[in-house]
Amino acid sequence: MFEQAHQRFGHLDVVVSNAGINRENLLEDSYDPATGRLQKPDLKNLEVNLVAHVYFVKCAVHYFEKSPPPHTSSPRTHQIVLTGSAASYIDTPPLYQYCAAKTGVLGLMRSLRTQLPRRNITINMIAPWMTVTPMLPAAIKDLWGHLPANTPEGVARALLLPAVDQSINGKAFFIAGNHMVELEDKIHESQPSWMGEKLSEDVDEGQRRLIPVGINPDK
């Protein structure tokens, strides 16, 4: 897909990773009919909702860097937008693997947001809360009642902000009832209140020292 788009248009500017599934059987036992042994869980949820984002970012950066420079003095800036979920921040049983995957998407965005700007790439995430789509079971929709819920169109509009505004980087936009609020800045601003001021200062200083050099602890 990336290769075809690059061949057709010559360069890529903005990419949005929005694929997702909802299939859970983590706590259900299944057995090999031949041996009777417990079978491993179905990991398709993690493969689509997390691993696919890793592949997506890898391809995006590769083809961004193959893009020719613009016909201006300013470098070309590229945008990556990942679709996380409210489950990136809050527990959502019985969506066990889904919650783990979407938390991983948040971690992926956080780990890249200080590195990709060096390549003139921004990365951000949206985190939709309840969204009414064909994936939503009728029983859950009825249980939700009159609480705020997103429409696909509302989520799509929220995607546009980090996709078109090149000044936005490393943010996560929580979307509820088609309204959105940025969470990452607020979490960091409140950090001293739940971590303690001294530890918060030390953590920030540690990050300040380590992040610029991109230390790999395995080397």
Summarize this, please?
One of its GO terms (molecular function) is oxidoreductase activity. Belongs to the short-chain dehydrogenases/reductases (SDR) family. With 219 residues, the chain is of the alpha/beta class.
Task: Explain what this protein looks like in three dimensions.
GO terms for molecular function: oxidoreductase activity. Belongs to the short-chain dehydrogenases/reductases (SDR) family. Keywords: NADP, Oxidoreductase. InterPro entries: NAD(P)-bd_dom_sf, Sc_DH/Rdtase_CS, SDR_fam. It comes from Capronia epimyces CBS 606.96. This protein is an alpha/beta fold. The chain has a single domain, classed as NAD(P)-binding Rossmann-like Domain (Rossmann fold, 3-Layer(aba) Sandwich), CATH 3.40.50. The chain has a 5-stranded mixed β-sheet, with helices on both faces. Strand 2, helix 3 and strand 3 form a beta-alpha-beta unit. Helix 2 packs parallel to helix 3. The longest helix is centred in the N-terminal third of the chain and has 21 residues. It is globular, with a radius of gyration of 20 Å. The chain starts with a helix and ends in a 9-residue tail after the last helix. The C terminus is likely disordered.
